[in-house]
Design a protein that fits this description.
With about 350 residues, the protein is an alpha+beta fold. It has helices spanning about 5-10, 15-25, 30-35, 75-85, 95-100, 145-155, 170-180, 225-235, 245-255, 260-275, 280-285, 295-344; strands at about 35-40, 45-50, 55, 60-65, 100-105, 110-120, 125-135, 190-195, 200-205, 205, 215-220, 240. The strands form 3 sheets. It has a 7-stranded antiparallel beta sheet with strand order 4-3-2-1-7-6-5. Helix 8 (about 225-235) runs parallel beside helix 9.
C-alpha cells in the first residue's frame, strides 16, 4: 500500500463509521489524490483532490454534484466526528480549538468552524461546531531538493511563497529534513518553530512527520516566542518556521538572523563608510566566528589577540604615513629647486 493511500485511510479512520466505511471502499487512485475531507452541517461529505471537488453519495460512490444523492452530514455525525478528532477529550484541546484547529495522529490537521465564545480580548473557545476540514498530511521525500540548492546559494535566508495548497509546507518540511541529515554538505542544527503544528505535527511529544535527526521542535509557540527561545537556548544553524502573516512575525525573523551573519552584514556596511583596508576588514570579519560561540574566557582571549593584531596594523599604518610624509617632503624640496633653476 502506497504512503498517500495509507495516510488517507488513517485520516478517514478518525471519522465516524458511516463516513469512514464509505471512504475506505473508494478507488485506490482516488484515495491517493485526496488532500482534504470536509464535513459541513446539513451538507455533503466533500473531498478535495487538488483541483477536483467530489462528493460522497449514500452508496459510497462519488459525484461532481453537491446535491444529487449525496450523503448528508447530520448534527449527530458532525458531533461524533468532532469528539473523535479530539480523542473524546475536548477539554484537553481547548488551546488548539481556540486557534481553530486540532493536530491529529499522523500529522493530519482538522480545521474547525463554529460560533465564537467571547473572552477578554480573544476567543475563549468555540461552540456549535458547523464544519470540519481534515487536511491530510503529505510527506514527499525530495520535495525540498531544489529549495536546498537555492538555500545553499543564498548565503542567508530563504523565503518560500505560493498560493494556498501549492505545497509550501511540504517543501519546507523536506528542506528541514535534508539540512538536518547533512544533505546540504554538512549536518545542520535545525530549530523548527511549529506554531500551528503543520510541520512536525507533534502528538504527545513525538513528531509525526520526519523532520530530520538534528531538528529541535518548538511546538505551539508563536514565531516571536519560538525564534527568541531558539536563538537564546538552542544555538541553531538554521531556524525554520511556517506562515509569516504579521509584522511581528517578520520582525521576529529579522531578529533571528544568526550572529555571525549579522556581524558580517554590519562590517560590510561600515566598511564603505570608514574606508577600511582589506586587512582591517578581514580582522573584523573573523570576530563574528567566535563571539558568542565559546565560553567567556575563550572569547576574552580571542579579543586580546584581535586587539594585538589591530595595534600592529595601526603601527604599520603610522609607519606608512610617516614614510609617505618624508617622501612628499623630499619631492616638495626637489620641486622647489627645479622651479628656481627654471626661473634662473
Amino acid at each position: 500500500m502506497e504512503q498517500m493511500q495509507q495516510r488517507f485511510l488513517q485520516a478517514a479512520s478518525m471519522l465516524p463509521p458511516p463516513i469512514a466505511e464509505r471512504l475506505a471502499i473508494l478507488p485506490v487512485e482516488i484515495q491517493k489524490q485526496v488532500r482534504e475531507i470536509r464535513l459541513r452541517l446539513q451538507g455533503p461529505v466533500h473531498l478535495s483532490l487538488g483541483g477536483r471537488e467530489l462528493f460522497l453519495t449514500e452508496q459510497g460512490k462519488l459525484t461532481a454534484s453537491p446535491k444529487d444523492g449525496i450523503m448528508q452530514v447530520t448534527r449527530e455525525l458532525l458531533s461524533a466526528a468532532f469528539r473523535m478528532i479530539c480523542g473524546y477529550s475536548i477539554h484537553t484541546h481547548q488551546n488548539e480549538i481556540r486557534e481553530g484547529f486540532v493536530t491529529l495522529r499522523g500529522g493530519h490537521r482538522a480545521g474547525i468552524c463554529g460560533t465564537r465564545v467571547a473572552g477578554e480580548g480573544a476567543a475563549a473557545g468555540m461552540r456549535d461546531i458547523s464544519s470540519l476540514n481534515i487536511r491530510i498530511a503529505r510527506e514527499i521525500f525530495g520535495a525540498g531538493t531544489q529549495a536546498l540548492k537555492e538555500f545553499s546559494a543564498a548565503h542567508g535566508g530563504l523565503l518560500l511563497a505560493g498560493p494556498p495548497g501549492s505545497g509550501k509546507t511540504t517543501v519546507l518540511r523536506d528542506l528541514a529534513r535534508q539540512l538536518s541529515e547533512g544533505l546540504g554538505g554538512s549536518v545542520c542544527k535545525v530549530a523548527m518553530v511549529d506554531e500551528r503544528g503543520e510541520l512536525a505535527a507533534v502528538c504527545a511529544g513525538a513528531a509525526q512527520n520526519d523532520v530530520g535527526p538534528c531538528t529541535d521542535v518548538l511546538d505551539g509557540f508563536s514565531k516571536p516566542q519560538g525564534i527568541a527561545m531558539a536563538v537564546r537556548t538552542l544555538g541553531p544553524d538554521v531556524i525554520v518556521c511556517d506562515e509569516l502573516g504579521t509584522r511581528e512575525d517578520a520582525e521576529a525573523v529579522r531578529q533571528g538572523v544568526p550572529f555571525p551573519q549579522a556581524w558580517v552584514q554590519a562590517v560590510e556596511k561600515e566598511e564603505k563608510r570608514l574606508a577600511l583596508s582589506p586587512q582591517d576588514t578581514g580582522c573584523l570579519r573573523q570576530w563574528g566566528d567566535f563571539l558568542g560561540a565559546a565560553d567567556l574566557e575563550s572569547q576574552l582571549e580571542q579579543l586580546r589577540l584581535a586587539r594585538a593584531v589591530l595595534e600592529r596594523q595601526r603601527e604599520e599604518a603610522w609607519e606608512r604615513q610617516n614614510s609617505l610624509g618624508r617622501l612628499y617632503g623630499t619631492l616638495g624640496v626637489l620641486g622647489g629647486a627645479f622651479a628656481v633653476i627654471l626661473l634662473w
